[in-house]
Specification:
The chain is mainly α and 126 residues long. It contains five helices and no strands. The longest helix is centred in the C-terminal third of the chain and has 27 residues, at 99-125.
Length: 126
């Protein structure tokens, strides 16, 4: 189970870094050139940057802290944060009738829920 958790954490972290970096550093105008990112037009620059920073922070919490052996609780906090971010994203996509994006959000929520479960519940049964 631990190997599966690490794989899911790594995949989530890579996806979050890939998604959060352009939101944080690329600027809203550049971001909106991507047809999958038109939702950004509904938000101020500061909100888009905040979302990007939250995604990068979650990625670091999923991988960096456990690798360094510090703040082990950060994995659960980061995964819970991913669930909250993706729930918010799903609401935005629902309002914009972007159904394919909602499916992606649901996959992220399920993967993050697996990490929360695996890092909290499974160790209690060991």
């Amino acid at each position: 189970m631990n190997i599966a958790l690490w794989i899911v954490q790594a995949l989530l972290a890579l996806a979050l870094l890939a998604s959060g970096t352009p939101k944080t550093f690329g600027g809203k105008a550049k971001l909106m050139q991507d047809p999958k990112m038109t939702w950004a037009q509904d938000f101020p620059d500061s909100t888009v940057r905040f979302i990007g920073l939250a995604e990068i922070a979650a990625a670091l919490g999923l991988i960096a802290a456990p690798l360094l052996g510090v703040w082990m609780w950060s994995v659960v906090a980061a995964a819970a944060g991913v669930m909250a971010l993706m729930a918010g994203a799903a609401v935005v996509h629902l309002r914009r009738k972007e159904n394919q994006a909602i499916a992606v959000n649901i996959v992220f929520i399920l993967l993050a829920a697996f990490v929360v479960y695996g890092r909290i519940v499974e160790p209690l049964h060991a």
